[in-house]
TrEMBL record:
Record InterPro entries: Acyl_CoA_acyltransferase (IPR016181), GNAT_dom (IPR000182), YpeA/RimI_acetyltransf (IPR050680)
Coiled coil regions, renumbered to chain: none
Classification of source organism: Bacteria, Pseudomonadati, Pseudomonadota, Alphaproteobacteria, Hyphomicrobiales
The protein, known as: Ribosomal-protein-alanine N-acetyltransferase
Record organism: Ancylobacter aquaticus
Classification via PROSITE patterns: GNAT (PS51186)
Gene3D superfamilies: 3.40.630.30
An annotated Gene Ontology molecular function: acyltransferase activity, transferring groups other than amino-acyl groups
Pfam families according to UniProt: Acetyltransf_1
UniProt keywords, alphabetically: Acyltransferase, Transferase
Residues covered by the N-acetyltransferase domain: 19-168
Superkingdom, natural source: Bacteria
Length: 168
């Protein structure tokens, strides 16, 4: 046998890359801006991430490619006890579909519950199927709609869905 087929080797390598989670840090701004730009039509720049990271109300986790590795995803939240809002969650396009988003959300809920937070809110573009699947899987429910809040790539209005999940 000459070894694994190329596609099977790729799958094995992809699964073998273990993701680690760590707290958000000041030096993460550039990497988070890069990941955010891959994920949204209007990406936030590094200066915006620096501002958010410096804000005492901001919480966040960064998923890295193994311990000490490069960032491959993040979740950024802000709020005041007992409520928190997910500002953004994004995963590097090469690592999407591997459970990183789920891992980030679940870890954030654990940390928030320990800090006394009771509810998490978010806003998501209607039709963002991957995000809606993640939020449904993690227990969020729709509590409202904002018609025409976003614009799609053609400039057409798209609703924002507001969602909530209790964590206590």
């Amino acid at each position: 046998m000459t070894g694994l087929p190329a596609w099977l080797g790729w799958m094995t390598r992809r699964r073998a890359r273990e993701v680690s989670l760590r707290a958000l840090r000041a030096g993460d701004a550039e990497a988070l801006a890069r990941i955010h730009a891959q994920s949204f039509r209007l990406g936030w720049d590094a200066a915006e991430f620096e501002r958010l990271i410096a804000n005492r109300l901001t919480r966040g986790l960064v998923a890295t490619d193994g311990p000490g590795g490069a960032p491959v995803g993040f979740i950024l939240l802000s709020g005041v006890t007992p409520e928190m809002e997910i500002l953004s969650i994004a995963v590097d396009r090469r690592r999407r579909g591997s459970g990183i988003g789920l891992k980030l959300v679940q870890a954030a809920f654990g940390s928030l519950a320990a800090e006394g937070y009771r509810a998490v809110f978010l806003e998501v573009e209607d039709g963002n199927a991957p995000a809606l699947r993640l939020y449904a899987r993690t227990g969020f429910r729709e509590i409202g709609r904002r018609p025409g809040y976003y614009r799609d790539s053609a400039g057409m209005p798209v609703a924002a869905l507001t969602m909530r999940r209790d964590i206590a």
